[in-house]
Amino acid sequence: MRTEGEAVSTDVPSVVASRAILDELMDLAERSEFSRLPDLFEGMHPSDIADLVASIPIEEHRIEVLKALPTEVASETLAEMEEDEHRAELLTGLEEQRGAELIQGLADDDAADLLGELEPRDRDRMLAALPTEEAGEIRDLLRYGEETAGGLMTTSLVSVSTGASAAQAISEIRKQGREVEDFYTVFVVDERNRLRGTVPLDDLILAEPSDAVASLVEPPVATVLPDTDQEEVGQLIGRYNLVSVPVVNPDGSLLGRITFDDVIDVIEAETTEDILRLAGVSDDEELKGGWFEAVRARLPWLVLNLATAALAASVILAFESTIEEVAFLAFLMPVIAALGGNTGTQALAVTIRRIAVGGGINASQFRVVGKEVLVGLLNGFVLGVLFAVFAYVWQDGDPRLGLVVLLAMWTNIIVAGFAGAMVPTVLHRLGVDPAVASSVFVHTFTDLIGFVMVLNLAAALLF
């Protein structure tokens, strides 16, 4: 442990330093010397402390760490922990008074997220220990869905009236700003709390004290409703480079704001979800989960893939005699199917990413299908010619086999590009998440087309 005033060497790699701190933390926990923890964690970011606390294997020791830390540090540490690190269990393991203190130290949106992970009985117990007004604000936020704008927003914001002067607005900002953490935008509302826009702080400061706020208002770049999906919120903030976006009800009344730091977490979560789904893994599987959760999440998708793969391979049984006559076809089929699968995956990844970034279906989405067909047309011809030359040489100069390879490869890659772009586009238009089912459909389709083309062309041209 470093002594007071001792500097930490910048030459020590952070991984090594964290390992040393974790070892010391484990040692203190084993000896129940929790009073020394504030000194151990002095100067550390709550996110780093959260990682260390989550690494403690015994839950009782993790609870004792939260009891020993200063309230503000413990609150931020709990907020920085991931849901799959069992932070809800840690909160319920605390006495009601200590739990209420930690919740009060959080922003209302973070408090609502944390309490939303508790069982209803434990949630009510914690809310009952909070001041009535604060408990009411958190209950209001808990009404919204977890993955909606309402579930992300905080009601803590700075707003001024359109009827105020610049001097009055500055005075009101000073007053409200003491109660609001990290405000980036000053919202302007009318007498009915309907959002009229925002006002830049520099305009307020440079304005004459008697100037009306109404003359300085800038229209809001974007607003969202409480039930707007969190992914759409992230797209809006990224598209317009906003630091916060206001949440309004259908009448235009200002309900809260969503800040960019909350959206960063959303983008990470949504990207992880899409990557898992694209790979055929349910997002129910936590990245830090155990083997049982992994089996339960992946097995249904593997069963579905087994069924679709069997469907595609069943084509081979119908052409058993053809394969017996030309054994080289058994070599051709998996190669052509694999190239088609890779082409479909490329088109699929680009299209799903375009849909995610674009935020919807429009005419350009269907133009992408044409682009992928054109790409497949050119790539398929080149690959088909190369593989046809190989087959021609390998099979002692039989031009008919080379033609079979060329046409089958060419057709399959064109179809793969078409399917890889069309399937997710259509699924998205039908309201189905394209990352969930696209890969199963595309791979089955390309395998099926590849096998059918090779075997049908062989039967028609070689016999």
Q: Mind explaining what this structure looks like?
A:
The longest helix is centred in the last third of the chain and has 32 residues, at 363-394. Helix 5 crosses helix 7 (96-104) and helix 8 (108-116) packs across helix 10. By secondary structure, this protein is mainly alpha-helical. It has helices spanning 14-30, 37-40, 46-54, 59-68, 71-80, 87-92, 96-104, 108-116, 120-128, 132-142, 149-152, 166-177, 201-206, 230-240, 260-278, 291-318, 320-325, 328-358, 363-394, 399-429, 434-461; strands at 158-161, 186-189, 195-198, 244-248, 254-259. It is 65% helix and 5% strand.
Estimated share of beta-strand residues: under 5%
Fraction of residues in helices?
Answer: 55-70%
Q: List the helices and strands in order.
A: HHHHHHHHHHHEHEEHHEEHHHHHHH
How confident overall, as mean pLDDT? 84
- Strand arrangement in the largest pleated sheet: 1-2-3
Structural class: mainly alpha
**Through-space gap between termini:** 82 Å
- Residue runs with pLDDT of under 50 for 5 or more positions: 1-16
Sheet bearing the most strands, described? 3 strands, mixed
